Amino acid sequence: MTHSLWTIILAAGQGSRLAASTGGTRKQFLHHEGHPLYWRSVLTMSAVPELAGVVLVFPPQEMEQRSAELENLKNISDPGVRILTTAGGDRRQDSVRLGLAALPRDCTRVLVHDSARPFFSPALVQALLAGLTDDVHGVIPAIPVTDTIKQVEDDLVLATLPRETMRAVQTPQLFPADLLRRVHEQALREDWTVTDDASMIERAGYSVRIVPGESANLKITTPEDLRVLATPAPLPVPCTGFGYDVHAYGGNRPMVLGGMPIAGAPFVKAHSDGDVLLHALCDAILGCLGLGDIGEHFPDSDDRFENISSGILLSEVMDKARALGLCITHVDLTVIAQVPRLAPHKEAIRGNVARLLELCDQQVNVKATTEEHLGFTGRKEGIKAVAVVTATRKQA
Prior knowledge:
Blueprint: E1 5-10, H1 19-22, E2 31-32, E3 35-36, H2 37-46, E4 51-58, H3 63-76, E5 82-87, H4 92-102, E6 109-114, H5 122-131, E7 139-144, E8 149-153, E9 156-161, E10 167-169, E11 173-176, H6 177-190, H7 197-203, E12 209-212, H8 226-230, E13 237-253, E14 256-257, E15 260-261, H9 276-289, H10 294-297, H11 310-323, E16 327-336, H12 346-357, E17 364-369, H13 375-378, E18 382-393
Parallel strand pairs: 1-4, 1-6, 4-5, 7-12, 16-17
Antiparallel strand pairs: 2-3, 6-11, 7-10, 8-9, 13-18, 14-15, 16-18
Helix pairs in contact: 4-6, 9-11
């Protein structure tokens, strides 16, 4: 099935808690880095390759003003996706329902996002997309609660809630579009009042999955939060990493490429599981980070890495990448071997690498080639792989 992904960005709120601090300007229209706050969410969403378009929900009384503003923003920096507008309602859930009505009918998946959360990343959206499977009806980002949480009534504590089971929920939130429409119609008929779309999905009896949120994805709510807008965030730095690895044939490790076993292929000589493709990928990611190579982090002299899955090594490299704010945007992989024939395996490898990196398939490319019987690969003595990773990282 072909999926069409859209996002609804809610910019119709009153912002009453901040009115005194902003001179009456609604928070979503405050300027940050020269643009209204909601525009940052538009630009971030437009960096997601799967996104087909955006529906912006504005206050009804400001539609003409905001539509003119939007045209100017598009002329300055066209995000490259369709942008539609619609008027919002009295409550957040009313604005979502009206946004859903403005979506094209071929939209199959929808992200619902609050414009007061302008600092999320495209990587968060990719994590949501990876989490929406056939057995799950919604995916939301959440972060652990660090404070002790009390249940209170009339200023008296009723109970202390176990914070290890608590999560603070963020947006964007991802749902199948048709399901979210049906649940909103049910909520309207039965007069539900909810604070987010996930709670509406839950109340209707459907399952919701959590993926790790981002600590930077804060919501501009109080006057103290305005300090974040006063300090421009440093722009991410583009970077490229190159990786190369080679393994000889004739060993005792069954061939694995990109985490996928290759049946009938020559066995390889290796200390780990010998996944030449993931080794090259690890090197490329480490190159983006300026952290040396895979041999420095997982030396073949260390018995801990004897026959270890290269997927585990990649997971550890990705932990370093996330900690340092690396956001991978594309991966290009090439396997060079005379044997085996890899054409039947490329799509499976591509899909598995995308899963390991929490990317969509379109952000991963896998190629296979021979060297026309030249060199050690041409003599069927071994296999090699190269990887190129493009990414952005936080400024030091």
